[in-house]
Task: structure prediction
Amino acid sequence: MTLYSHAFQRIGTENAFKIASHISRIEQQGHYVLKLNLGEPDFDLPKFISEEIKRQLDLGNTHYCDPQGLLALREVIAWELNMTRGIEVSPDQVVVFPGAKPAIAFAQQAYLNKGDEVIYPSPGYPIYESLIEMMDAIPRPLHLREDDGLGISAEQIEELICPATKLIFLNFPSNPTGAMATEQELEEIAQVVLQKSNPECRVFSDEIYSDIVFDGRRHHSIASVPGMRRRTIVVSGFSKSFAWTGGRLGYAAFPTAEEAQSFKNLNINYFSCVPPFLQMAGATALNSPHRHAAIRQMVESFQGRRDDIIPALNSIPGVRCISPLGAFYAFPNIGEAIKDLGVLDAFKSLSKCESEDTSPAGLFQMFALYHHQVAVLDRRSFGRIGSDGQHYIRLSMAASQENLREGIRRLREALKDRDGFRSFVREGRQLCRG
Ligand code: PLP
Result:
């Protein structure tokens, strides 16, 4: 008998959170770590939202409430999706969750049987892959290609889709690549889904970064393509748009009210309801006349940082980086640079146990953290399966311009610090994330 269930032993994780203990350790030794690992906007919660949270608390709005989400919030969400995606959504198709993240696990629990197949972008948000094997379902990573701008094409979906496909995760703008899809690309993907998949197959369209798009682009949703509304779960939330990651407020709009009821029942089973004072503040966030200015200001900052750091990254020998179109991450290919640093050879000499939990870029990630005090994440943190030989790191642009510049300066130093890397490997203490 084992302590943990077999299913539980197959769960993955999100390294963006796991790396925090390493950072604290270095900080406790008196070093200043440049944290370019975090997926959370470095802005304050807008005042018009924090004021509303306080007001709701003073009103005593602190009790259990509708497990599906307060009607007042679901109405605004339905209206919002209608206005921005041009899709018919009624409040009874909407469910509110503590963040967008639980919708990912719940969708897997609700829709997947043993042997069902799940298509998801890789690199992609790690929680998609993390849970698939726990559900006894089959992961079908869709490997993004740099020569396609790290986007997703209909042909790639077509290669993977089959009658056993039950869930397809899409995420535009993407974490970690910043890629977006045009209306035409989404139409082409939709045609493949409609023609090749089982009618019960669902597209999980993770649109959490839909407000963070650059150069005047517009976000498009696959749910807006004719025929796709009845196949798509549109997921978004308040964490990124309002720099409100600690609010834990997200939502999904389901193809049918019946599916929404099933997810409401999952809410009942797991946490009863989302705090009502936060939900009311969420409704205010979407309704407020100050909303667009607050988001615009944040997006302009991200865009300015992007324009500054992408050329800086591309000027490092052996590094090349596509310019992100949205979200707030840079995802440079560091393959040539880490080869010169000796990382590929060092990786080959690791024991099986050591190499199992990391990658060459992961080895560099730990070296950059412990020897140069800059925190980034490796490619493998965004999908393990089939990631061998792909040498990327993710930098979050959720840091001041000054810190980003200093972070890139430290990465540049780290990438040419052969002696430092050799002694890091010789010490052998922090090779893996643990
Ligand atoms: N989806 C993607 C693509 C994300 O990057 C994140 C957070 O980083 C989430 C979902 C989860 O968001 P939340 O904080 O609302 O749970």
